[in-house]
Amino acid sequence: MPSEKDLTVLVVDDEEPILELVKETLTRFGFEVFTAADAEQGITLFRREDPVLILTDINMPRMTGIELLRVIKKESPTTQVIVFSGVGTTDHVIETLRLGACDYMIKPFNLELLVHTVNRCLERHDLIKERMGRKVMLEQTVHSRTAALTRTLYETVKSLGRLTEMRDPYTAGHQQRVALLAVGVGKHLGLTRRELQVLHIAGLLHDIGKAAVPVELLVKPTELTPPEFQLMRCHPKAGYDILKDIPFAESLGRDVASIVQQHHERLDGSGYPNKLTEVHLLLEAKILSVADAFEAMSSHRPYRPALGIDFARTEIAQQSGQAYMPECVDACLYLMEQSGFNMQVLFDMLQEFKSEIYN
Between 193-205 and 343-358, two packed helices, what is the crossing angle to 10 degrees? Predict the structure, then answer.
């Protein structure tokens, strides 16, 4: 016997004797029974009383039981429906079962069979609800564990980024600021939450290849010589080699290692390490290159003081369409304007963007 919470039944038939017979029978077995003389009244009661089981005749004036079945299944797929008729055909049986009816019965009823069929349909309802509950619990568990893995990945990436900054204290915070600015540009361009996560992670790791650069070059207080600069230019490829075996593509759907390798490439092929042109560059790398260039110019370096926001704005604007993707430049400049050209305000705003993509 079903639980008390599942004892509400609605019977729909245009024959009063049938309604009374079914109601009397099911009431004796502890069911709460509502009756309706036509499908329209049945829909009203269905929406008001939320029965777990509906018994309906097929042949009724204005609206048939099959039409009623369609309405019920559309609004409440788990509600069980038993269809009955005194003049049913094989086509009727097939149609009702195809639409989701639990069973089909022929009038006049065998009352014992009626009660048995009602109980069986209610057991089916309980089983469906139980499975749905397990599915919801499973989805919640998967969501929770995915979120935990994402946080673990993010914290791991941050730790890897810190290794680079420990060797290059003069640019401490550079990777975090580039990552935030890249997320702001990507958000302005309409990237999805997952794409923004990829962009943020690539930003946090974009200079990890500097682990392969001698520390004396990273902290050298004067301009690098041409040979030293060539050695410094190896860091994007070194970053790729460090990251290439981490399965970012499996977890994030994008090749973070290739994004890192391309962050110093330029649209016109003047970048490094592979002199790639626009058609061969990943969108994330195009975004990262603008964010990296802007942050580097507006911040201090061992060999020079910060060039300032105005210089950085002018430089990337002049290189728009040649070195940098115009849409990325426009988005970066827009963020500057939104912050009133105040770097602290800018990065406070970008921190909020970053929080959104991980929550």
Answer: 120
- Domain 168-358 is found in CATH 1.10.10.60: no
DSSP strands (E only) in 61-213: 80-85, 103-106
User: How deeply is 61 buried, as exposed, middle or buried, from its count of CB atoms within 10 A (0-12, 13-18, 19+)?
Assistant: exposed
CATH code 3.40.50.2300 region(s) in the chain:
4-137
Q: Provide the pLDDT confidence category of residue 171 given band limits of 50, 70 and 90.
A: low
Instruction: Give residue-wise pLDDT tens across range 54-83.
Output: 999 998 888 999 999 999 999 988 899 999
d(CA 129, CA 71): 20
Which contacts of 126-132 are long-range, i.e. CB under 8 A and separated by 24 or more positions?
Answer: 126/2, 126/3, 126/6, 128/78, 129/78, 132/78
Task: 170-176: list long-range contacts, CB under 8 Å, 24+ apart.
Answer: 170/218, 170/219, 170/300, 170/301, 170/302, 171/207, 171/218, 171/299, 171/301, 174/207, 174/295, 174/296, 174/299, 175/203, 175/204, 175/205, 175/206, 175/207, 176/203, 176/204
Percent of all residues in the chain with a pLDDT value above 70, rounded to a whole number: 94
Measuring CA to CA, which residue among 243, 237, 271 is closest to residue 257?
Answer: 243
Residues of the chain with CATH 1.10.3210.10: 168-358
Amino acid (1-letter code) at residue 46: F
Q: Sign of the CA dihedral 135, 139, 142, 145?
A: negative
Q: pLDDT, tens digit, for every residue of 75-133?
A: 988 899 999 887 767 787 888 888 889 888 888 878 889 899 998 888 888 887 777 77
Q: Are 199 and 183 in contact (CB under 8 A)?
A: yes
Q: Please compute, for residue 45, the number of CA atoms within 13 A of its CA located in the half-sphere on the CB side.
A: 23
Instruction: For domain 4-137, give the fold.
Output: Rossmann fold (3.40.50)
Its pTM stands at 0.61
Token duo for residue 127: 């089983």
Give the span between the Cα atoms of 76 and 50, in whole angstroms. Answer: 9
